[in-house]
Structure formats: C-alpha cells, structure tokens
Design goal:
With 239 residues, the protein is mainly beta. The chain contains no helices and 14 strands. The chain is globular and about 50 Å long.
C-alpha cells in the first residue's frame, strides 16, 4: 500500500514493501471509472461486483450488470491503464452459452493458488480478511471491515472492524482533487492482484481496492440503483 493519492490511475498499482498494517486506514478515491454503457439490447443502469486481475500487461475486469427490467447479467472490460477504464469498450456475456438468459451475477475470478480465497489475502506469513458491512449504528451505508489471522482458517484478530474505526468508509476516504463526494457507499471491492499466483516470500500488501459506489441521493428498487466502479488507494502506508 505504497501509492500516493491518484497514482494508481496513471498505470499499474505497485506492491508495497515489507511492513505492518496501520491501526487506522485512510484512503483516496477516484471518481467513477467504469460506468454503464448501454446498447439497444442491454439497457443497463448499473455496473457492480467487480473482480479484477492483471494479465499480459493489461487489467481485466468482470462485473455484474443490472438493467431497466430488473435483469442481471455479466459484463467484461479490459484496459492497459486505469486512466483508460472509462473509454474501454464493454462486452456483455449473455451471448455466452453457459450464461445466456439465466441469472448470473457477482463474478469471481480465481487466478491464484488455493491459499488465497475470496476477500482473504496473504500478507507475509499471515492473512488479511476484508468483509463488507452495513453501518447499522449510524447511516446504514456500506463499508469495509478488516481482520488479520495467521492462516485462512485461523483465529481472526480485529484490525479495523468497527464503524468508528473502519477499514474503508466515507469517514476515512477523501476524494481526489476536483472530484465531488460522489458516493458514501464503498461496497463489494477486492484488493487488486498484480500477480497470478502469490509468492510465498512476498510480504507486500495489495495497494488498491476497486469498490462500487453510487450517488448518495439514490433510492428505489435495488436493480435501479446507479452503481459505478472506482478505485481506492491507501494514503497512510506504513511500509
């Protein structure tokens, strides 16, 4: 987590150096980078649930789509640099025989060794776990909590697990210069993986999280909520 605010947008997020996690996190948020691109057959209103990986010098993102009729499906985009994400074409995967018109949502790409599972990340000899939560004690907005453990099945130790001390929430996220506070929700993100398989000797921490967010004034049926994808970058690395 060694990037300066906004530097992830310029190119490839780089792994941090060996070090400990902070007791409190702070982040910088981009504006929306991936927004719906509807066409005649896909009147989509939202893109959400990103899963991200890097392959052959490019970023690859699969995501959920929701349309005006309440249909859910999957989409895909790729780009060389995060600053190009907004202009990259989007492909809808409902033409794939294994998907078709059936319900399909919340994709997850497993391109890494089994010891790293969904939202559990290897950190040196330990593991970092991120969990999405609702701020039920205050504004009911979505945010992330974090724990550490010696192994994926080990005892979890609180790291940033409360509304007062979250991993990532509107209270500890600043927006980049010129960006309005376009969201108060930080939902369904995963840490960027720059390698296909984790190196057992690599003690670096993935530096960025691409979450979904939406206009704070939005309301109504869930499939009509205007989710967009952005990029969070940690601004108080300890390494």
């Amino acid at each position: 987590m060694a990037l300066a605010p906004g530097s992830a947008l310029a190119g490839t997020p780089q792994p941090g150096r060996e070090g400990s996690l902070p007791e409190r996190f702070t982040w910088s948020s981009s504006g929306p980078l991936i927004s719906p691109k509807p066409d005649a057959g896909h009147p989509i209103l939202a893109v959400e649930d990103p899963t991200v990986f890097r392959y052959r010098d490019g970023w690859h993102v699969y995501f959920t789509t929701a349309d005006t009729a309440g249909r859910w499906s999957l989409g895909y985009t790729s780009f060389a640099r995060w600053s190009e994400a907004g202009s990259a074409p989007q492909t809808f995967l409902d033409a794939t025989p294994d998907i078709g018109s059936r319900y399909a949502a919340a994709p997850q790409i497993f391109s890494f060794a089994p010891q790293e599972t969904c939202n559990v990340y290897r950190l040196g000899d330990g593991h970092l776990m991120l969990v999405e939560a609702l701020a039920t004690g205050s504004d009911w907005r979505r945010y992330f909590r974090a724990w550490t453990a010696d192994s994926p099945g080990g005892t979890r130790k609180p790291l940033a697990d409360t509304e007062a001390n979250p991993c990532a929430r509107s209270s500890n996220v600043a927006f980049e210069a010129g960006q309005p506070a376009w969201t108060r929700d930080f939902s369904h993100g995963e840490m960027i993986r720059a390698r296909r398989r984790p190196d057992p000797h690599d003690r670096s921490v993935p530096p960025s999280v691409p979450p979904q967010g939406m206009d704070p004034a939005s309301s109504g049926e869930y499939h009509r909520l205007p989710w967009r994808l952005a990029l969070l970058t940690q601004t108080n690395p300890t390494c």
